[in-house]
Amino acid sequence: MSNNRYLLEIGVEEMPAAYLAQALKFSRKFWKSALKAKADVFLTSRRIAVSFPEPNEFSSDNLRNILSDFINQIPFPKRMKWDDSGIRFVRPIRWLLAIESADKEASVLPLAIGKARAGNRTFYMQGMGFLKAEKAIDGIDGYFDFLNGIGVELSFEERKNRILEQSNKLAELKGCKVNVHKPLLDELAFLAEAPRMFIGRFDEKFLSLPFEVLFTSMAKNQKLFTTSFSEKAETAPYFIGMVEAQDRADFDFTQVINNVESVLYARLSDALFFWQQDLAVGLSNKVDGLRSIVLHENIGSFYDKARVMADLAKAVAIRIGLTQEETNGLQKAAMLCKTDALTLMVYEFPELEGVMGYYYALKEGLGEEVALAIKEHYLPKGSDDDLPRSKLGAILSILDKVSHISGFFGAGIRPTGSEDPYGIRRAGLGIIRIMLKKEIPLLLDRLFQESIKLWGFEDKDIYPRIEEFFSDRIVSAILQRGIRRDIAGACVKRWGLDLFNGFKCAKALNKMAKGREFQDALKVLERTYKITKNAQSLYDVDESKFKEPVEVELWRKFGVVREEFRKAVESGDIPAAVNSYSSLLPVLHRYFEDVMVNVDKEDIRHNRLGVMQEINRLFTKSIAAFY
Prior knowledge:
With 627 residues, the chain is α+β, with helices and mostly antiparallel strands. It is built from 23 helices and 17 strands. The longest helix has 28 residues, at 254-281.
């Protein structure tokens, strides 16, 4: 077996940290698959390094092809072209280190990426420069030793550990703990190759600001960790930041800390001013200002939407039995939930929309329930986002999304292909997730119909288009919850947008799907469907036209089953309804043995088809439309 080892390093201008988590995951999988052997893959914002032993049946030609495939396939949302070589990558490739090492001898491999020819040199930061210093590498072990000597940690996981260890030690010195925000931790670990943490302080007067404001100013805008006093979980007036410390072991942080504190003071001063000004006005005084925000020129303003939501809230409250206090709170939240868009704070920090509405509502004395509904009505913002936790928050979120979808559908605007500029798809999926998780007894079909009318749209085709938009998405969501495909499809076909009753039936049927009663019920449905599927219309049943004793027997049995079935459905006892319905199978079997349905005499044929239709429709119009 060969002792040869290989090292590749692709040097790149600063790659966006947001792209690198996916790129690292892909890279590890790619090289393991391409080499059919273990490979150590490292990725920072400035370099991609791969080290591996020589695989079987390996050559430089193989490696050349693998490298080309890697450059072309690594998943970056955007690529750029920087010279006439034709290579496109997320950022310009500035050097390629490619060596083969056997024992202590190393040789350069005949590889290239565009105009970057392979060599034995790596680059690193010296002072404040950008990767200006270079170092000749005499072997693979020498490469790792050199980078380690100047503080560079190639492992993403180890960089994260280094950041956490240093941050925790700094926080402990001040008697506080670090608020670790995982996305920020990952971003910092990709931004720096040799992370060095420092701690600074801000004026305690800014602690009167909501935590989310401090977090946004520090973590999102300046890449700083916030801190808190662990024993009280109170925000502490300290922040922890990071610098790139390649070859800077004796670096003095004083100037960096002063600069960060200065910038942060200015940002937080602005935020405190916005906070105070917004509190002086209040949300209730901003309702009329919603007229100035246009939702869409063919739909109306945010004020119009707030009115639609408030009217829907009143109808919903009566339907699901909210208390008068809850009803008043829901209507109040509906009118106010968009008003924080007019505040100075949200203008400066748009990502705090809803969050600031919560704090301003509390300060205005509107109560926790109303405030929380205002905050939560934007949820979920994505497929993996949290759902509203409060009852009013969940209801208001649904009303927000129902009014949004019905408004845009009413204006003739629907998502096409992968495009969804108005968030219609996202709103639809949000409704489905909330309804299936919270099981709120809202009749979505009626809600959408009422919303269409409240917007003033008269086109009768709007609701069917909305129902079509939702159909496959509802089936998919129900399937994800372990429901059998035929049951999911049948329940959605019967209940449409009534997710509450549709999902309740689907769960009940799924639990009894392997039982004999369910199977017998399906046989009744199947036989009655097949004999009636080509019927031209629905036919009435006239008992005087029964010719065979089994016709009378079946109709009488059906009368008993129909009564039991309807009572069970009304009480929500789906298993009892199915069990009763399944009892029709024995007599139905005898019926088909003794009776010819499609006889020549039209009135007798229609009468017998009418019996079959009645039996089939009892189930399909009440529980699920399998056939």
